[in-house]
Amino acid sequence: MIPEPRLVEVRKNVLKQNDMIARALRERFRESGLLAVSLVSSPGSGKTAFLEKTLTLLQPRHRVAALVGDLATENDAARLARSHAPVKQIITGTVCHLEAAMVQNALNGWDLNNLDFLFIENVGNLVCPSSYDLGEDLRFVLLAVTEGEDKPLKYPTIFNSADVAIITKSDLADAVEFDEAAARRNIQSVRPGMKVSKLSSKTGEGMMEFLDYLEMNRRNCRAASAVSK
Amino acid sequence: MIPEPRLVEVRKNVLKQNDMIARALRERFRESGLLAVSLVSSPGSGKTAFLEKTLTLLQPRHRVAALVGDLATENDAARLARSHAPVKQIITGTVCHLEAAMVQNALNGWDLNNLDFLFIENVGNLVCPSSYDLGEDLRFVLLAVTEGEDKPLKYPTIFNSADVAIITKSDLADAVEFDEAAARRNIQSVRPGMKVSKLSSKTGEGMMEFLDYLEMNRRNCRAASAVSK
Description:
The structure is a homodimer.
Chain A: H1 4-32, E1 35-40, H2 47-58, E2 64-70, H3 75-81, E3 87-91, H4 100-106, E4 117-121, E5 138-144, H5 151-154, H6 156-161, E6 164-168, H7 180-190, E7 195-198, H8 207-228
Parallel strand pairs in A: 1-4, 1-5, 2-3, 2-4, 5-6, 6-7
Helix pairs in contact in A: 2-3
């Protein structure tokens, strides 16, 4: 009874337009030599806490900025502003994901040549963001130990669309009897070979190793950019 | 650049069809004298744990059944089957929410006259399920103490579409320094007068009071059904 073919057709058009804008964004990021990283997860998995910690730790050595998506409120931008990095909030209204055009608009007025890292925090949602390319170089999917080990099996598409899985809130692992081996097994069964990191933005456990990984990717990305110039 | 008017029009048609089916479902539920309750929340807020506990505790005195929605896997149905209540899994594929037609199809073969309570667990998503009426009498939105107190402000639509807010995983409140007063204040600012319960499916804290509330609603609903016959 649902007019599916027409809906599917319209959705394909939206995605096609999105992919074109995403491709242009990726090209701009590459030319600027910055590393663009997006974060996806359930609401409350700790995207903003992770980002605040990351911005603060990267800042002494790097030029960093962030865009944060939410249906409503500028709370996340206010939290991230404490890191003193440039931050813009994207308010999506009732839209359940970020789109490349929203990222493009939000970047107006920023000189990307002055940035080493751009972080894009998506709306908290484990389903809808998976289909939308934002032009990012890397997509991180966050999974808090408090959410249960089965999330990769239940939301396979978003794990498949991401490059790295980050297990967050590791400081709570014992309190919730988190089965890390099961979580890792589930991630690997959905996306074999996926890089998995475990960390706590609160205690800092695992953060320094993760920053090394980010800096390594940034060096590779700058090298690629220099070669192409 | 996105063909918004056309997309909006198609979406409105989908919603209209959904509302018609939801209305027919609500009528069937009323005639059967059962109480239909749906659960919405982020992935990992504890919908399935809450439902397993509720089914187990209600069963000695009531006839209960559940439908559970997920993108993939029948894990939740398997977990809920431990309660020995009839359970069906609805696999949505890539669809980020349940629709009334999915509920209607899943009920095929069940005699609703033999049920006192029907629970419908939506896909874990704080955005998309808000727009879809499933014919339920009551909609519960779950918020785990591990998710942060600001979720009602950031996802106001789903809190507005729900009747009751349930704060789950209360046993972890101290470990995560949960600010209950702030959470309640945020819920009330989004939906003034909303009923809020706090409980733990793990320790059972708050569960008995909540079952009293469910049973009271079921009595009211049966009384209304008897009057209309």
